[in-house]
Amino acid sequence: MKGTLYLIPTPIDERNVLSPDAFALLENACKNEADKSVFVVEDHRPGRRKWIRFGLPREFIDGFILYNEQNYQDSCEQLISHLLSGKNVYLMSDAGLPAFCDPGRLLVQRSHDRKIRVTATSFGNSVILALALSGFNHDQFFFLGFPPRKTEERLNFLTNAAEHDCTSVMMDTPYRLNKLLSELASIENNLKLHREYFLALDLNKESELLIRGSLAHLLRVLPPSLKSEFVLCCAANT
Question: Is-contact 143 112, C-beta < 8 A?
Fold first, then answer.
């Protein structure tokens, strides 16, 4: 069994506490799963300071693994090895959401490549969370919003979206999920495009489902009648 990569958002200030679900997850990892848990921080000093302020067990601080701009290439392979061996990896940056516009993106990408589960504790912005969980390059990205409902306007919108060079993000109402994927697949087929997508359904819920792959793959694995809140990310055109 492979482990899971957990992205743990932390407060950007020095006053607010860790979210209850993140605290419960880390506390359980320390108390009940210490032998299969790997805790990763961006830098020792702020990582240690926040860990203590959050009220987490001090004895785990010496075992922190560093993952930052200076060492992420080497640390990434070390952490993937841990994940493949069945250990869970808990990734925290100094502040904010790991893997969003930081080196954590490479770890997420390589986890997806190895079919390792990636998820996150609660975060207040579904678009940003979906991008972080996708592992797609999002140094520049476009939020396209919701496609129009009228047929011609919708076709033009989705055609422009499919041809976009940068990573893009769109949403739609839950009951239009399969329609949207089918429309995009038809457009890509006509344009002879082969983009990779990341579909994030029910983020931060027990029913959360994250799927990465081609539109054909997404349509194949999704139940036709599924209705869920979702964010759809499309990788940059390479």
Answer: no
Q: Look at residues 148, 162, 164 and name the one whose alpha carbon lies nearest to residue 191.
A: 162
Element housing 4 (H / E): strand 4-7
Q: What is the pTM of this model?
A: 0.95
Q: Kindly report the backbone phi and psi dihedral angles of residue 119, in degrees, each rounded to the nearest multiple of 5, phi listed first.
A: -150, -175
Query: What is the phi-psi region of residue 88: left when phi exceeds 0, alpha when psi lies from -120 to 50, beta otherwise?
Result: beta
Closest C-alpha among 63, 66, 143, 74 to residue 106:
74
Work out the burial of residue 60: count CB atoms within 10 Å of its CB; fewer than 13 is exposed, 13-18 middle, 19 or more buried. middle
Phi, then psi, of 36 in degrees rounded to 5 = -125, 25
Query: What is the rounded end-to-end Cα distance, in angstroms, of the chain?
Result: 33
Cβ-contact 168, 237 below 8 angstroms: no
The pLDDT-based confidence of 19 (bands split at 50, 70, 90) is very high
